[in-house]
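thought: fold this chain, then report.
action: predict
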Amino acid sequence: MILISYWDLLTLSFLVFLLGGVLWLNGFSQVKQLWWATLRMAAQLLFMGVWLSWVFYAENVLWVVLVGLVMLSAAGYEISKRQQYRLNKFHGVWIGLLALSFTSLMLLIGVLVFVIQPEPWYQPQYLIPLLGMLLGNSMTSIGVGLDTLTRSAVQLKAKIEAQLALGKTAKQSMQFIKEQSLHAAMIPVINMLVAAGIISLPGMMTGQILAGADPAEAVKYQIMIMLLIATSTGLGTLIAIEIASRRLFDDRQRLQLDVLSKA
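observation:
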C-alpha cells in the first residue's frame, strides 16, 4: 500500500480553502461552516486513527465498548442537531439513540457472531469500521426522516387538525406525513444501491482493494455491508418516525407542536 504523508494532506486541504473562496464569490454564505466542517473532519479522523491504533493492539473489550458508545452517542446527537424543528428535552437525541441501537447495533452484533465470526467476536478490526459505516448511513437517513416529519407537521398543522376534527385518530391523521418522511429518508439509500458497482465503487470495497485485498473478496464484504445499511436504515427510520409522531400528540390525541423548538 502506497503511503500518504501529512504534507500531502495539508496540500490537498488548500483545495477546500480555494473552493470556499470560489463559492463565496458566487453567493454561498456558509463558507466558514464548510471550512470548519473540513477542519473538524480532519481532526476527528486523526484522533480516531491514533485512538484506534491503541485500541486494536490493546485487545480489551471495555475499550471496544467505549469506542462504540462514543460513536453511537455522537450519531444520536447529530440526528437531533440537523433538524430544523427539534423535539424538546433531548427527546430527539434519545429517539435517535433508540433507533440506532435497535437496528445498526443489533444487526452488527448478529453479523459478527453468525456470519464473519472473528475470534473474539468483538475484534475491533471488524466491529468498529462496520459500526461506523452503519451509523453514518443510518444517521443521515433517520435525520432526514425526522426533519421531514417535524417540518411537515408544522407546515400542515391545519390539515392535521382538520382530520382530527373529522374523527380520525392521531395515527390516521399523520399517516400521509409519515409516508412522505419514509420516502425522503429512503431515496438516498435506494440511489446508493442502484449506483453501486456501475456508477460508483463503494468506500469499503475501494479501501480493501487499495490495501491489496482480492477484489472478489472485497465485493463480498461490500455487498454484506450494503445489505446491512439498507436494512438498518429502513428499520431505524421507521422506528424513529413512529416514536416521534407519537410525541407530537398528547394522551387525548391532540396535536401539540409546543414539544418542538426551531433550531
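thought: worth noting. Residues 59-262 form one domain.
final: C-alpha cells above.
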